[in-house]
Sequence to fold (234 residues):
Amino acid sequence: MGQIPWPEMHGAVTHFPVALLITSAAYDVGAIVLRKPAWRAASLWMLLAAAILALPALLSGAMTGEAMFGSSGPAPAVYTSHRAAAFATTVLAILLLAWRGATRDNLEKGALGVSVILSVLVAGSVGYTGFLGGKMVFQGIEPLSGVKTQAPKAGDMLTKLEGVGCLRCHSMDGQGGEGAPDLSHEGARHSNVSWQVKHLKDPDSLSPGSSMPSYARLPQSELKQIATYLAVKR
Fold:
């Protein structure tokens, strides 16, 4: 049995609690503004569902981080912030759920207002968490050192990739072999430098069943240079 594809798993489960928490807050506000008590009950059930679904989202996120950064050095700052925001959002949502459950959601006046404000804060927090996640996926994140690295010149890197053997199987910009995926737009698939470094060191850990050999023998500086180049190929 192959390894669980944690990044894909995280992407599949994480959107549910995000949508539920934001919708729950919208129903909380709407229940007061539009004077619809039934909406308040709906928001509570959404909050409960979100709290339950947050657990697999946190687990898959933690395993994704372990797969990407576990043996590659310190995790980038944006990932650390994303993880902290996710845990803080979950804790706040569970506390809000516990309070509403303990009072059987029979809150009035000031207490009701505080619960709605907390609901909106949870929605804002999960939105920020999602923003950080999107930043990692669509903009790429910092290399292992935490400092953004400029991409080497294309001609030099093609020579280097050919020298270490990448282009025997892979192709890039019309050069190389045909037995492995084209790397001309590798950055569109994996823009994370740390992911690229780990994949070069241990391909099977991120792509189970891969026939690609390990390049762990290369110096760390050379691995980061190749990884940076691959990460920006869009």
Remarks:
- The chain has a mean pLDDT of 84.
- The beta strands are 171-172, 175-176.
- The first strand starts at residue 171 and ends at 172.
